[in-house]
Write a structure and sequence with these properties.
alpha+beta, eleven-stranded mixed β-sheet, three-stranded antiparallel β-sheet
């Protein structure tokens, strides 16, 4: 990062010169800074909606975008980190593996994105919002049906019309039309389905049809229709040819002796749509991406994408979930139950306590595996929400015991899906989880039961980065070692009507403001002075421990004050905008220091200011469904334009200056707290326009 920092400091100087803070000598100020300024961009989940809106954000901040320097162009070049979850990770990884090409080129390049084609061939876009509030989709597997509707008496039931719509719709994705849930013949206009029509619902004939079809599709003589645009009545052969290609692309991993999960196929489907043509090969890895010219020259922000580790059959809230991250160099978790990382190029190696178990004749040399860190697989891991959709549907339909589910079983078994979900010791029967096996952290010592569960398991199961409700990747940038001063946070989630309303971020608040946390929470300290006779002295001063995450407005406050319609600055007041943490017996300064959290002897760390911006219809109704799986060219442009306007607050020149004030805010704070020796005894005053910006955009509880 030191080489990247040299570039970001120069770009920051240029940005400040283009949008000067009135009556402020920024050149002299930058020369006396306490430390280099580090900025991070955090992109939420939300499928293609998040990817496209956030692409507009990057376009607005990229000085290579035509006319962008009139606003905030150059901010991207001054940014140190970029992080994404789920749909946000699609943009982060596309940007990384695409060699940091400007968005305006990627979207128009016929070798770039392919968003006009269905992300999953044969499966149309859909929006589960019409029934999601009435369906429980994540109960304990042993106790409750996977998908159920509850009536007033809380007795589970599945309504007939719901059941019929679901099964006919799901079969419709594969080109089959049904007249009822059970008994009536499936129909389709394609000649090849006529035999299926003759079966009149006979399960044996349906099964035989699909077995024959699948065998024929995987024969050597079949042609494929790579990239075909899905239209009504697309043939089953065309659809299955697409999935045949995914199967071929994944099978080398199986042949190498690794278990396969649905994420492997999902990742390959993503690669075809969001990566440039040169980066779509199955062999493209994160570690190899470090050799790209833009990365070698430190021209792009350092990419981080997030996931959640979760054991099948367990449910954990955001308070105690296990957060993992991927970078081009490492994979692991900062959380105290593990607090360990592995070089990502060695993922797939069999390790015990950090050492390879495959020895050579030379006792000082062991053998490790490379190539497991597939960019598509890792990207699919962070966005494995879609795996859950498939598996929930599958288990839901299997429970219905209809003849048509035999057809579904034949389809989904191609991708490793099985009805035997309760055998935790067999990783092959949990295809909805991204499987990282062997576990690179196996055999490491852990002081906690949670850590021991992980380090004693031979496999790691990872799920969507927003699976625990934390759908905005703030946690990678709250670490002291990354020294982030400003997080530009973008909430593209779908809290209400596919727009955010402040609900999603509450999961992160619950985690970081939890005084009874079983995970060691990062924090910072401030010295509180005692006011004696109206004269402030440091006499009898005490240190106060505070959370690194500021207060966030609740959804009610967000809606009442329109805070999701404009940017807000969070954490402006270090003393009052951050809650105190009461360290219990599980958290002490000595333990925290040992675990590389904030040490009691290092009081110079300040948490980053957060500029939080929510998706809103600035110039386009951008509340598309997370499950919209394709976008026409015109839609792509309108979504990106809306993201551009969202990031610049409708191209406001005043906002440009306020962002510069936000960038310098923590430096202002270090002067106030006497941390910057260059200003001791100096009569420094925050520029008046910055004080105005802070009054307008800072939110206080």
């Amino acid at each position: 990062m030191s080489n990247r920092t040299q570039i970001t400091e120069l770009e920051l100087r240029d940005l400040l010169s283009r949008h000067r803070i009135p009556s402020f000598d920024f050149e002299t100020f930058l020369g006396k800074k306490y430390k280099s300024t580090k900025i991070a961009i955090a992109v939420s989940g939300g499928g293609f909606r998040s990817m496209l809106l956030s692409a507009g954000v990057l376009s607005a901040y990229d000085l290579r975008t035509p006319n962008a320097t009139d606003n905030l162009g150059g901010l991207l070049q001054a940014t140190s980190y970029i992080g994404g979850i789920s749909g946000g990770s699609w943009l982060v990884m596309s940007n990384f593996i695409g060699d940091f090409q400007p968005i305006y080129k990627v979207k128009d390049d016929n070798k770039g994105w392919s968003l006009d084609k269905q992300l999953l061939e044969g499966i149309p876009s859909f929006d589960p919002g019409t029934f999601q509030n009435n369906i429980v989709i994540d109960p304990p597997l042993e106790t409750t049906p996977v998908m159920q509707v509850t009536d007033a008496s809380n007795e589970p039931k599945i309504e007939k019309d719901f059941k019929g719509n679901f099964i006919s719709g799901f079969l419709g994705w594969f080109g089959i039309k049904t007249n009822s849930v059970k008994g009536d013949k499936p129909q389709n206009s394609e000649d090849e389905v006529q035999e299926l029509s003759k079966s009149k619902g006979n399960s044996t004939n349906i099964e035989a049809y699909f077995v024959t079809l699948i065998k024929s599709l995987f024969s050597k003589n079949n042609t494929t229709t790579k990239g075909v645009k899905v239209v009504k009545n697309i043939s089953l052969k065309e659809i299955f040819s697409y999935y045949k290609e995914l199967q071929i692309e994944v099978r080398d991993k199986r042949k190498a002796g690794f278990h396969i999960s649905l994420t492997d196929y999902w990742g390959r489907a993503l690669a075809r749509r969001i990566f440039s043509s040169t980066a779509r090969t199955p062999g493209a890895t994160l570690s190899a991406g470090t050799l790209l010219p833009s990365f070698q020259k430190w021209q792009q922000p350092f990419p981080i994408i997030c996931s959640v580790e979760r054991s099948p059959h367990t449910t954990e809230s955001s308070k105690d979930s296990h957060l993992f991250e991927f970078t081009p160099y490492e994979f692991g978790s900062w959380d105290s139950y593990l607090n360990a990382f592995i070089p990502i190029k060695y993922l797939g190696s069999s390790l015990n306590a950090g050492y390879s178990i495959h020895k050579t004749e030379n006792e000082n040399i062991s053998i490790c595996i490379s190539g497991f860190d597939s960019v598509s697989f890792v990207t699919g891991t962070s966005s494995s929400l879609f795996n859950h959709v498939f598996v929930y549907l599958y288990k839901f339909l299997i429970d219905m015991k209809s003849d048509a589910t035999v057809a579904l079983e034949a389809i989904l078994k191609v991708f490793g899906l099985s009805a035997q979900y309760k055998d935790l010791n067999n990783p092959r029967v949990h295809p909805d989880y991204a499987l990282y096996s062997p576990n690179p952290f196996y055999g490491l010592k852990s002081r906690t039961s949670k850590g021991m569960r992980l380090t004693e398991s031979t496999d790691i199961y990872l799920v969507d980065g927003g699976d625990d409700g934390q759908n905005i990747p703030l946690h990678p940038f709250l670490r002291r070692s990354r020294e982030v001063d400003l997080i530009l946070s973008f909430d593209m989630t779908a809290d209400k009507d596919n727009y955010p309303n402040g609900t999603t971020i509450q999961a992160t608040v619950e985690r970081y403001h939890n005084n009874n946390s079983q995970i060691l929470l990062p924090y910072f300290t401030l010295t509180e002075s005692v006011d004696l006779n109206n004269f402030t002295k440091s006499y009898n001063s005490t240190k106060v421990v505070k959370s690194v995450l500021p207060y966030f407005p609740t959804p009610d406050v967000v809606i009442a004050n329109g805070l999701n319609q404009r940017p807000i600055f969070l954490g402006c007041d270090l003393r009052n905008d951050y809650p105190n943490l009461n360290l219990n017996s599980n958290i002490s300064l000595s333990v925290v220091s040992a675990d590389h959290y904030l040490s009691s002897t290092n009081d110079d760390f300040l948490p980053p200011l957060i500029v939080h911006t929510s998706n809103a219809p600035y110039t386009y109704q951008s509340n598309t469904s997370t499950f919209q799986l394709s976008y026409e060219f015109d839609e792509v442009n309108k979504m990106i334009d809306n993201g551009y306007n969202l990031a610049t607050f409708m191209n406001s020149t005043y906002y440009n200056v306020c962002i510069n004030c936000a960038i310098l805010k923590r430096e202002f704070d270090r002067i106030e707290l006497n941390l910057n020796q260059n200003y001791l005894g100096a009569n420094f005053s925050i520029p008046s326009v910055c004080r105005t910006c802070f009054r307008e955009f800072c939110w206080h509880r």
